[in-house]
């Protein structure tokens, strides 16, 4: 029986999970594949740590080059993370004609395009299912299961840390900074949580999803990105009173005429979603991706977006897909696999990104104002000048010397128009602090 020989870079959280499946789940995989996947080599800076696995038949090195250059490795799994040296190792493996599987969303979001070109030149494949949604096979669903559809929208809760923080803030009425500290103590948030809480991690994943959905090039640098650090427990409570829950969403939509996509809208920000929307039910560290297509209508994929075992599950599924087209001798039939980004080479376009000023939304505004007569009237008059009408106004506390919060929900307007109104509102002497602007998605409700 033919076998495919795997080399692993990084034996951290996910690398250990992948090694565990490859060493302990052999029989099931062989029954599914009709061939064997064998872990032959692995590299990590720390080779001495006990990972609770029997590596007696695996060459372990502290030098990744030993794996990337090994003649007996057919497929390299990159689980080091970050941009460099991961990019160099992946490029070297591809150059040597080895297939690559990675869970590294940062790498694919930033350098994916050059790596896809290199892989195609060398006749090998690159798999990255685990880079988006961890254990949820949402890329495979988008690339293959929904291939007959023109995709109309993608909405995702793509970062478990942020979802955990927002859920806990809601359940306990606790403030952001306290919950973040607790999440760090529990290991749900990194010591440096910047990529998670500022929305960068979600933007990496959204850039990949959007390109795959609309046949465009990956443009991570074009994703409008805001994080969750300005959300207070009071905002979560006010949103709930108005019938909404706040989620950090990645949102991608196509724009164009006659069914031809000309521009892609990509944004990541805390979003008000109706309390009864399916995506609003996704709590704690879970992820979900809602994809709508012109024939299939709405579909939703839910599960663990991170963690050793779920993420390793997605990595190994990619290894198995590639193993199916490996001949064992002679060139591998990678053209039998769906193209990595779901469109054949040359059919993915360099599409423009819709400028954020042109995005149309309904908005939640939180103003901190002096509790004086006429303040709300001056704010609403500026909004009226900009033809922005209001769905709701809520002022919670009164008769205080301190600034009090006023919450407003607007009807739909363009971001550019809203921002013009907000800069006039911010200049009012009775308005203190920067106005908090949150966007609403109603999912057609
Ligand atoms: N953790 C998750 O839940 C999750 C979910 C989805 C995707 N991912 C992605 O999966 C990848 C791996 O994440 P992880 O959580 O497993 O990270 P991790 O626990 O930090 O593991 C990375 C491992 O690679 C080692 N390493 C770093 N540079 C190396 C080098 N030059 N040569 C050899 N080994 C090196 C690290 O050693 P040191 O610790 O000594 O640096 C560490 O043991 C990342 O791209 C991440 O974004 C993770």
Characterise this structure:
- Helix content is 34%, strand content 27%.
- A hairpin with a 2-residue loop joins strand 9 (244-257) and strand 10.
- The protein has three domains: 3-135 and 308-336, Rossmann fold (3-Layer(aba) Sandwich), CATH 3.40.50; 138-302, Dihydrodipicolinate Reductase, domain 2; 356-440, ACT domain (Alpha-Beta Plaits, 2-Layer Sandwich), CATH 3.30.70.260.
- The strands form two sheets. Strands 7, 8, 9, 10, 11, 12, 13, 14, 15, 16, 17 and 18 form a twelve-stranded mixed sheet that branches. Strands 3-2-1-4-5-6 form a six-stranded parallel sheet, with helices on both faces.
- The radius of gyration is 24 Å and the shape is elongated.
- It has 445 residues and is of the alpha/beta class.
- Helix 1 (13-24) packs across helix 12 (308-324).
- NADP nicotinamide-adenine-dinucleotide phosphate (NAP) is lined by residues 9-15, 43-46, 64, 79-81, 85, 103-105, 130, 134, 306-307, 311.
The low-pLDDT segments are none
Major pleated sheet: 12 strands, mixed
Distance between the termini: 55 Å
What is the fold named in CATH at topology level of the largest domain?
Answer: Dihydrodipicolinate Reductase, domain 2
């Amino acid at each position: 029986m033919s076998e495919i020989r795997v080399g692993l870079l990084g034996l951290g959280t996910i690398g250990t999970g992948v090694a565990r499946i490859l060493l302990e789940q052999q029989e099931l995989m062989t029954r599914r594949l009709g061939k064997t996947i064998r872990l032959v080599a692995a590299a990590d800076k720390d080779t001495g740590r006990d990972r609770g696995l029997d590596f007696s038949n695996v060459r372990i090195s502290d030098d990744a080059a030993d794996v990337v250059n090994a003649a007996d490795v057919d497929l390299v799994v990159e689980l080091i993370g970050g941009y460099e040296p991961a990019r160099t190792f992946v490029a070297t493996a591809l150059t040597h004609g080895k297939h690559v599987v990675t869970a590294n969303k940062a790498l694919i979001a930033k350098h994916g395009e050059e790596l896809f070109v290199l892989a195609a030149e060398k006749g090998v494949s690159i798999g990255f299912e685990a880079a988006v949604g961890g254990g949820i096979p949402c890329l495979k669903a988008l690339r293959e299961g929904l291939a007959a559809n023109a995709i109309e929208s993608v909405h995702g809760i793509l970062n478990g840390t942020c979802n955990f923080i927002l859920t806990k803030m809601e359940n306990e009425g606790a403030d952001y900074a306290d919950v973040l500290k607790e999440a760090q103590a529990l290991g749900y948030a990194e010591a440096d949580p910047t990529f998670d809480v500022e929305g960068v991690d979600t933007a990496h994943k959204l850039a990949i999803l959007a390109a795959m959905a609309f046949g465009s090039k990956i443009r991570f640098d074009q994703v409008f990105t805001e994080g969750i650090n300005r959300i207070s427990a009071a905002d979560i409570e006010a949103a709930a009173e108005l019938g909404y829950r706040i989620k950090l969403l990645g949102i991608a939509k196509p724009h164009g005429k006659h069914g031809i996509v000309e521009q892609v809208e990509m944004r990541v920000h805390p979003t008000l979603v109706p309390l009864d929307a399916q995506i609003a039910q996704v709590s704690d560290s879970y992820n979900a991706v809602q994809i709508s297509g012109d024939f299939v209508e709405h579909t939703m994929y839910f599960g663990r977006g991170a963690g050793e075992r779920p993420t390793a599950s997605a990595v190994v599924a990619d290894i198995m897909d590639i193993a199916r087209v490996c001949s064992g001798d002679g060139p591998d039939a990678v053209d039998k696999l769906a193209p990595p980004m779901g469109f054949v080479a040359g059919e993915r376009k360099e599409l423009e990104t819709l400028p954020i000023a042109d995005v149309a939304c309904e908005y939640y505004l939180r103003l901190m104002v002096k509790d004086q007569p006429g303040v709300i009237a001056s704010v609403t008059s500026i909004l009226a000048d900009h033809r922005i009408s209001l769905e709701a106004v809520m002022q919670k506390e009164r008769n205080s010397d301190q600034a009090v919060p006023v919450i407003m929900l607007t009807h739909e307007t363009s971001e550019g128009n809203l921002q013009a109104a907000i800069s006039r509102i911010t200049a009012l002497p009775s308005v203190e602090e920067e106005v908090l602007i949150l966007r609403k998605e109603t999912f057609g409700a």
